[in-house]
């Protein structure tokens, strides 16, 4: 949908959603691959993080230099409160 490129679409979606959504896979299903190729002290940039638990799960697993960003200010505030 062309709406996916609209900040308004995402702000509205994140205002209505109560739980995170994993677009690709939950961390547990891709953890082995991530750990194989990324060192835990690597700087990680999670672009378009949305309300995924990926950064939070990676942080709990020892990846401590993670920057998550999204163009929806609604979801960024939501995730700041959560994390």
What brief labels describe this structure?
83 residues; mainly alpha; two-stranded parallel ribbon; 4 helices
Give a verbal description of the structure.
This protein is mainly α. The chain has four helices and two strands, in the order ααβαβα. The protein has a two-stranded parallel sheet. It is elongated and about 35 Å long.
**Distinct helical segment count:** 4
Strand/helix succession: HHEHEH
Q: Strand order within the widest sheet?
A: 1-2
Name the overall outline.
Answer: elongated
Helix content: 40-55%
Low-confidence blocks of residues = none
Mean pLDDT: 93
Number of strands: 2
How can the largest sheet be summarized? 2 strands, parallel
Structural class: mainly alpha
End-to-end span in angstroms? 30 Å
Strand content: 5-15%
Radius of gyration, taken over Cα atoms and rounded to an integer in Å: 13 Å
